Amino acid sequence: MFGDIARFLLNTVFTLFGAALLLRAWMLAVRMPPYNPVAHAVMQATNWLVLPLRHVFKTTRGIDWASLVAALIAAVVYVALMVFISGVDPLGLAPIVAVVALLTLVKWALNLLIWLTILMALLSWLNPHSPAMPILYQLTAPFLDPLRRVLPHFGGIDLSPILLFVIVQVLLMIVTRVAVSLTFFSI
Q: Keyword set for this entry (predicted)?
């Protein structure tokens, strides 16, 4: 029972923190203004790890390498702790931990995309003039716009979030299956 509780808490804390680090890099990539409340909150939550890494990993061509490296570090620590809780020495499985950490990073990014898309779809129905809509649109547009060009228009109903959700769910299933096959626990 203690192991299940510890795994749940680690998963929750590291997934939220990893998602915040990935969101920070994503916001820079889509050139989101840093003065909006969401960007400010994400920056405040992640500065303690990202700012020291900025001395080593510079931002180039719109890619926030410090945030991505910080997310990878968080994923490695998360996977190592999960392996340790399972009763195995993480150092003995270092190559597997590294691969599973990369898969975990991909999983966090896919989950973040799902949640942002769901939030945008819900707000577009409930409160399309919400101040969060421009932020959500700016973050999800790189993924939804190509789908909007392919899908036919159905009387003003945008089906692109549903298609994106299906695609991302399939990718999540693949990533999770590969990670589970490499380890004896689920990430």
A: Membrane, Transmembrane, Transmembrane helix
